[in-house]
Structures are given as C-alpha cells and as structure tokens.
C-alpha cells in the first residue's frame, strides 16, 4: 500500500489555548490583563522551570507594573494572560522542550513552541536586515519596527521531512554523522527561495541519498522551534535498487528496513531509551518523524 495518512496529530502541533491575536495591538486590553497575567521565563538555551508536571509561571507584576517591552504575549488561558520573556539569569532545576519528551501535554507543547519560536526570533531581529537600523518590539512582541516605520514580523523557516518507502514493506532510514550509531530517522531539508515543497522533496532526497522519488504525498506539519522552523511532512516512493549516494555530506549511512524491523524498534521506545544491542533506534515522540514512522508501520503492505 503506497498511500497512508498520519495516525494522529503530531505532538507539537496540538494547541489548546487561545492565542488571542486580536488584542496584541490593543494596549489597553493588555494593560488591563497584566495584573493577573502569568509570565514564563526562558533562557537562551530554551530552558525553563517545570515542576510537579507543569510549567512554572511567575506573576507578571514581579517583572513590571505594566506590560514589559521585552515580554511576548502568548495568549489567554483560564482567563489569565500568558506572557514569556528571555531570562538568562534563570536559576533552579531547568529543562528544555526536548527533555520533556513523553511527559509533554498539549497545553505545555502549545505554550513552549510559541514562546521559543518568537523569543528566538527576537534574539536575531534587533536590527533591520535591509539597512541595519535598530528595531523596537511592538504589538506585544509579535512585530518589530524601525524608527522610519519599517515593520517586520516573526519569520519561520519551512523545511520538508520525508519518509521514503518502496510502495510495499520497506522504508529508507538514514543517520547523520553526529547521531548515536544506531539512531536513524527520516530525511529532511530546508525549502529554498522560489522552490515548491514538492520540488524541495525531490531535490533534498536526491542530494542527501541519491534517490529519485515519486508519488510525493503531503502528510501534515509541525512547528519546530529549534530555532524557528516549520516541518512539513511528506511520503514518497523510490526504487530500492537505486544506488545510495551521499552527495552533500550530511548523511553518513542509510539502509532499507522492513516493516517488522521498524515495528520492533518502535517497541523499544525512542533513541534516548538506548535499547541495549538494538540495531535500530528511532526519534522520540516530540518529533513529527516519529508520528510519520508510526503511521507507516501501522499500514498493511
């Protein structure tokens, strides 16, 4: 069976709070909500406090008496405004988004993906790319503007991630140089300027492993705030008889695995489980790659 669909919504794509974008430019509404607002502090490494199974928010008023220009308005939950701010002096037991892995609930995923992506953008957007003019955050952190009025918005970097299979019982999985010896995943790459998503899939698969692919099918997407990407999931079919050529140097090895081998690896858990003696370890639940592989493995060939 060539075609398949995702068996669920990728973990980081589940959003269960109101982003309330309609009040980002409403200074009075933001000021009115500030006294009861909650503030999430995130350091430059993307780490935050997480205790007793929940994010640790502080009172926004501990930062300032009214909305702070360096804070980002995330939305509203339970009637409370939620904000985030970069705090490189953050202390105590800290964890990052990847570290939460399987313990990540939908609310926490939604808050952290938004907070990390926008704060990461602010870190690099202090000056206008066209003329070097300094920029100032406006609209509760969802825009930056120069003194002359030129406005910029948070950017995202689209990237494709693709499961290549043979139309039957085998799937191609690959490993980068820096990964553990038995960790394999899907192939991925950034979309270039002026390029369609489908063309990007064709180009990246050819560049990374030398395969010509067809039957390209869109599966779903997931925010990936490392630092501010959007992963667009695809599947494609290739002939296993084609030789593998690692042309761009990013991939150190790739192999065709059977559905049974993949199912066994899924049973071990994610790569951090480090199953002893396992030939194949797969990405964790935080990645759309895991959802795609699981969905393919559940199909009957």
From TrEMBL:
Cofactor: Zn(2+); Mg(2+)
Alphabetical UniProt keywords: Hydrolase, Magnesium, Metal-binding, NAD
Source taxon at top rank: Bacteria
Alphabetized Gene3D superfamilies for the sequence: 3.90.79.20, Nucleoside Triphosphate Pyrophosphohydrolase (3.90.79.10)
All copies of domain Nudix hydrolase, residue ranges: 154-279
Reactions catalysed: a 5'-end NAD(+)-phospho-ribonucleoside in mRNA + H2O = a 5'-end phospho-adenosine-phospho-ribonucleoside in mRNA + beta-nicotinamide D-ribonucleotide + 2 H(+)
Signal peptide residue numbers: none
Pfam families per the UniProt record, alphabetical: NUDIX
Family assignment from sequence similarity: Belongs to the Nudix hydrolase family. NudC subfamily.
Name of the protein in question: NAD(+) diphosphatase
């Amino acid at each position: 069976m060539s075609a398949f669909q995702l068996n669920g919504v990728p973990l980081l794509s589940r959003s269960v709070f109101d982003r309330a974008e309609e009040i980002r430019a409403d200074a009075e509404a933001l000021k009115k909500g500030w006294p009861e607002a909650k503030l999430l502090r995130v350091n430059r490494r993307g780490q935050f406090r997480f205790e007793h199974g929940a994010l640790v928010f502080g009172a926004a008023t501990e930062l300032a008496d009214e909305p702070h220009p360096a804070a980002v308005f995330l939305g509203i939950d339970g009637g409370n405004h939620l904000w985030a701010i970069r705090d490189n002096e953050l202390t105590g037991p800290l964890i990052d988004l990847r570290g939460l892995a399987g313990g990540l609930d939908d609310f926490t995923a939604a808050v952290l993906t938004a907070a990390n992506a926008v704060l990461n953008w602010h870190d690099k957007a202090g000056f206008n790319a066209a003329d070097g003019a300094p920029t100032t955050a406006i609209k509760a952190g969802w825009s930056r503007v120069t003194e002359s009025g030129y406005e910029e918005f948070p950017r995202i970097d689209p990237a494709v991630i693709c499961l290549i299979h043979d139309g039957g019982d085998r799937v191609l999985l690959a490993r980068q140089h820096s990964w553990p010896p038995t960790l394999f995943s899907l192939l991925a790459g950034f979309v270039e300027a002026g390029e369609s998503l489908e063309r990007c899939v064709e180009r990246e698969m050819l560049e990374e492993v030398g395969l010509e692919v067809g039957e390209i099918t869109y599966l779903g997407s997931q925010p990936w705030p490392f630092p501010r990407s959007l992963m667009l999931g695809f599947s494609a079919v290739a002939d296993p008889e084609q030789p593998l050529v690692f042309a761009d140097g990013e991939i150190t090895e790739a192999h065709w695995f059977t559905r049974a081998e993949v199912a066994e690896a899924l049973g071990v858990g994610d790569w951090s489980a480090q199953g002893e003696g396992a030939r194949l370890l797969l990405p964790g639940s935080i990645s759309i790659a895991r959802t795609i592989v699981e969905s393919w493995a559940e199909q009957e060939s």
